[in-house]
Amino acid sequence: MKADQADHFPVLIVGGGASGLLLSALLSRQGVRSLLVERNSTTCDHPQAHVVNTRSMEIFRSLGLDSEIRRHALPMGTSHVRWVTDLAGRQLAALNLAPPPKEIVLRMAQSPAPQASCAQDRIEPLLANLAAKGPGRVEFSTEMVDLETAPDGVTVKLRHGGKERVVHADWVVACDGAASPTRSLLGIAMEGPEALAHVVGIYFHADLSEFASARPAILYWTIDTEAPGTLIAIDGKERWVFHAAWDVERLSLESYTKEQCKRILRRAIGADVDFDIRSVRPWTMAAQVAERYRAGRVLLAGDAAHRFPPTGGFGMNTGLQDVHNLAWKLAAVIEGKAGSVLLDSYESERLPVGRGNCDWSARNAAGLDKVIGPGAAHEAQRLADGAVSFEVLSAQIQEIADREVGHFSALGRDLGFSYETGALVPDSSQPPEREDPDRDYIPNARPGARAPHHGFVKEGKILSTLDLFDGQWTLLAGAAETEHWRSAAAAQGLPIAFVGVGVDVEDPSGGFASLYGIDAGAVLVRPDGHVAWRCRDGVDDPGATLRHALAKILGNP
Ligand SMILES: Cc1cc2nc3c(=O)[nH]c(=O)nc-3n(C[C@H](O)[C@H](O)[C@H](O)COP(=O)(O)OP(=O)(O)OC[C@H]3O[C@@H](n4cnc5c(N)ncnc54)[C@H](O)[C@@H]3O)c2cc1C
């Protein structure tokens, strides 16, 4: 490959799934020109991910996409998951995931953007539209076929319409999914089990209201010998996916013909209804994380970096949050505001999160092992053989469901993840103690934490702290030393928005200072909404103090 013939891009993104498209949009927001190449001709048309957690909804809110996502989402009131013999048949167990009113009030105090259930095939076009606004460019039907890395850049061979061309990029981000060709070319190994289960996902349209309206649910697990699987309500109207457990020892993928899929669906629904099968896709449940997220000028994000069991719904969310972490760092390096060492913090911050979410998702899958997939078929066989009565099996499944309820309620993992080392200056505070770190979120503004939501009023309008960050550096300080800190923010080598609480915005509850842990000091929030640095008390020279902190954060000597 000859680099001198190439087009040149500061960033080349391989893969136009949710991770790649969001990265393109975020880089554009930072003013960075990128090229995204996606080998398929359109965004995905097969709904897989649907749980969009609170942190991801906050990111979408900052891009103005949250209302559109809610418009396509399952109606807010749908809150059950159920275990049934088949959709029309008997219910064995159920969980109502609707939080009690007290919990709802607490959650509203923690985020202005509650989680939603909106399928990936509706999210991706929204991201693609945003990405298409530029300056980033998105090219569909374009495949990355090879790349060569060098100390000063990456040369990438692309194929489009049978023709090959070469482009040159300063940085490449592999968002090319679980089988990541980029990761393979770089020889980066995945750690963890590769095949925990095999599944065939059947996406279909049908009017199932006759059966579902009496027992609405987000998902139904079928306890059946022939069709053990998960039926997911995508829009609460006509869009459904059935994930059928696939016995790879016994059945080839070719045996999943349309006729066979229809038989499976009839069995799972328990009635001979009309349905329109839209797509059939196999997938393998894995619990793997890449051994590293960076190799020179190439970085891995999304499923290219980690593959989780879908139990808990963290795969896409973790990928979205990877690129949210990465976009501003790439922009800072490309604009010469930071050395490339800043990009090392991408791995030191995100790899532990990827590992934690992977282990948690795998634990969820193991906890439900007996009542989903092959385990469900085994239990159904015991029921059919009379080895267990319906009532006893029902009680056993309910016990497992109650024990595993935590995997549907993980605000601690969703909002409470925090970076211990990376692009931040730690202070002497300890992380808040949590009885259950997966479940419990305790808002705090320690360096590394997501800067918590707090309500302000500005010019008569209600505002969340989160609305202030919006892709930029933000310094917040109380009224006491506002003007000193304002001058300090203005005197740095990069733009920092300054907010004097009690001066530029009103704090009606008066709770900002204690929530953010400052008196006459200040808090510096990164463009991804995580706290980079804070100082509780006033200092003699705020400008120099802030400059010193920024140099550490950005890795500038
Ligand atoms: C059944 C199921 C349910 C799930 N539910 C949830 C959920 O509720 N919530 C959640 O957060 N996650 C969920 N997930 C996980 C989620 O689907 C994935 O984590 C997510 O799709 C990963 O997004 P991505 O953009 O990283 O990768 P992908 O969506 O895999 O996108 C990668 C893209 O790269 C392209 N590509 C690959 N190679 C090349 C190449 N050489 N050149 C150009 N393009 C290339 C591919 O065509 C593809 O479009 C679920 C997964 C499954 C299987």
The rounded Rg comes to 25 Å
Main beta sheet, described?
8 strands, mixed
CATH fold assignment of the domain at 3-74 and 116-191 and 288-363: FAD/NAD(P)-binding domain
- Which homologous superfamily in CATH is the superfamily of the domain at 3-74 and 116-191 and 288-363? FAD/NAD(P)-binding domain
Q: What would you call the quaternary organization?
A: single chain
Query: Which class of the domain at 3-74 and 116-191 and 288-363 in CATH terms?
Result: Alpha Beta
State mean pLDDT (0 to 100 scale): 95
- Classification by helices and strands: alpha+beta
Count helical runs. 17
Please explain how this structure is put together:
With 557 residues, the chain is an alpha+beta fold. Among the domains are: 3-74 and 116-191 and 288-363, FAD/NAD(P)-binding domain (3-Layer(bba) Sandwich), CATH 3.50.50; 418-554, Glutaredoxin. The protein contains 17 helices and 26 strands. Strands 1, 2, 7, 8, 9, 10, 18 and 19 form an 8-stranded mixed beta sheet that branches. A 7-stranded mixed beta sheet has the order 5-4-13-14-15-12-16. It has a 4-stranded mixed beta sheet with strand order 24-23-25-26, covered by helices on one side. A hairpin with a 2-residue loop joins strand 21 and strand 22. The longest helix is centred in the middle third of the chain and has 24 residues, at 344-367. The protein is globular, with a radius of gyration of 25 Å. Residues 14-20, 37-40, 48-51, 120, 143-144, 175-178, 181, 201, 243, 283, 302-303, 310, 313-317, 319 line the site of flavin-adenine dinucleotide.
